């Protein structure tokens, strides 16, 4: 199976990591893979070693020049599958296949990793009509696609996966020494872009409540984004400068994660949350909201505690319940590791993705 993958992001977030794992996994199974990525993107840099990578940078969603260039690439390569991994990638692929597709026409697969509704404008509706199959990262996303009018038979749930052995092989950081914390300070971690739907503001609002019982507690938030100035202002307003640390973008996320006492995902919306999978692979207990696909990952009371979105008091209560019970944290960490090994490996994700490719190609050529 020959597939061309397109991702237009410059940043490195969970979606780009999933693209990276997908192309590595397909290559490991002996399939030819070409990645089309932003020339200045982190994904292109990481994927160039040992693989075919082509640069492409759409100026926007309706970039007909990029669509024309991509159509030439596809006619030259003649893949079986074109897999678009973000909305601008779907637009570029749909335009390219409409301008001039090879014969036989490759099937167009679109990944959907966010639980946002599809835009209702005419171009958005047109481009998604060109998609032969949607890979939803969770059942929650699949249900939203169907609600938005995508035929059920064109949707497939393929839960995201991670390289569990890689996480297991990484040594934990001494987070307390790294950030000049008291030696026995409880450390609560969060990983995610500083954007509204990740809900870090609600986690920060929970901190004063947590400090009443755990005055030395520290909250480490790893990530960068547009809300950094607002979150910094919130931290100052609540006088939490000693207790909440915004690390910015880090390349050593897993080693820091393995130094946390527990992991919190405070999202308001969330497709699935690959940081949750990393936390489970690191045997960290979890506090998370019930947003989107999170309950498909975290089993309440077994691998972590689930709370309603936007509820700072419930977040604080759950953090407190786990901080005061080390044995429960250890039990949940073990259960999380067992669950991620059973259900959320990258190998399983790649096999299921390949099975969808094969089904769609058979249908298109029948």
Please tell me the CATH architecture of the largest domain by its name.
3-Layer(aba) Sandwich
**Mean pLDDT metric:** 94
* CATH topology group of the largest domain: Rossmann fold
- Flag low-confidence runs: none
CATH class category label of the largest domain: Alpha Beta
**Main β-sheet, in a few words?**
7 strands, parallel
**Number of discrete helical segments:** 15
Q: Give the total of beta strands.
A: 13
Overall number of structural domains: 2
Instruction: Output the structural class.
Output: alpha/beta
Shape: elongated
User: How do the helices and strands follow one another from N- to C-terminus?
Assistant: EHEHEHEHEHEHEHHEHEHEHEHEEHHH
Helical residue percent? Answer: 40-55%
Radius of gyration: 21 Å
Side-by-side strand order of the widest sheet: 3-2-1-4-5-6-7
Tell me what portion of residues adopts beta-strand conformation.
Answer: 15-25%
CATH homology-level superfamily of the largest domain: Glycogen Phosphorylase B
Distance N to C terminus: 16 Å
Describe the structure.
By secondary structure, the chain is of the alpha/beta class. It has 2 domains: 3-161 and 345-365, Rossmann fold (3-Layer(aba) Sandwich), CATH 3.40.50.2000; 165-343, Rossmann fold. Helices cover 44% and strands 16% of the residues. It has helices at residues 14-28, 42-47, 64-77, 87-99, 122-129, 139-147, 164-169, 175-178, 200-213, 228-237, 253-257, 274-281, 312-323, 326-343, 346-365, and strands spanning 3-7, 33-37, 52-55, 81-84, 107-112, 133-136, 155-157, 187-191, 218-222, 244-248, 262-265, 286-289, 304-307. It has a 7-stranded parallel β-sheet, sandwiched between helices. The longest helix has 20 residues, at 346-365. The radius of gyration is 21 Å and the shape is elongated.
């Amino acid at each position: 199976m020959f597939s061309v993958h397109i991702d237009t992001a410059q940043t490195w977030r969970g979606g780009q990591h999933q693209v990276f794992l997908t192309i590595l996994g397909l290559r490991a199974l002996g399939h030819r893979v070409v990645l089309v990525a932003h020339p200045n993107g982190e994904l292109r840099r990481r994927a160039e070693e040992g693989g075919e990578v082509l640069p492409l940078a759409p100026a926007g969603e309706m970039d007909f020049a990029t669509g024309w260039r991509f159509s030439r690439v596809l006619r030259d390569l003649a893949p079986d599958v074109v897999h678009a991994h973000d909305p601008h990638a779907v637009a570029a692929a749909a335009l390219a296949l409409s301008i001039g597709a090879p014969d036989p026409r490759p099937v167009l697969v679109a990944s959907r990793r966010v639980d946002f509704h599809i835009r209702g404008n005419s171009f958005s509706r047109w481009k998604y009509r060109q998609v032969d199959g949607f890979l939803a990262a969770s059942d929650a996303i699949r249900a939203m696609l169907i609600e938005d009018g995508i035929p059920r038979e064109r949707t497939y749930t393929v839960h995201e996966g991670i390289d569990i052995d890689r996480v297991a092989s990484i040594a934990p950081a001494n987070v307390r020494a790294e950030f000049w914390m008291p030696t026995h300070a409880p450390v609560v971690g969060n990983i995610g872009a500083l954007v509204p739907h990740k809900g870090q503001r609600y986690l920060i609002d929970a901190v004063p409540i947590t400090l009443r019982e755990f005055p030395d507690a520290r909250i480490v938030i790893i990530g960068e984004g547009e809300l950094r100035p607002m979150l910094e202002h919130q931290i100052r307003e609540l006088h939490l400068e000693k207790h909440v640390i915004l690390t910015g973008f880090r390349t050593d996320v897993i080693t820091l994660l393995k130094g946390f006492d527990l992991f919190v995902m405070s999202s308001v919306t969330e497709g699935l949350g690959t940081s949750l999978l990393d936390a489970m692979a690191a045997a960290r207990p979890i506090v998370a909201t019930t947003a989107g696909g999170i309950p498909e990952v975290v089993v309440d009371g077994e691998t972590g505690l689930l709370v309603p979105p936007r509820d700072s008091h419930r977040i604080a209560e759950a953090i407190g319940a786990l901080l005061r019970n080390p044995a429960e944290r250890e039990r949940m960490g073990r259960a999380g590791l067992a669950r991620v090994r059973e259900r959320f490996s990258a190998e399983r994700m790649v096999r299921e993705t390949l099975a969808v490719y094969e089904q769609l190609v058979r249908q298109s050529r029948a």
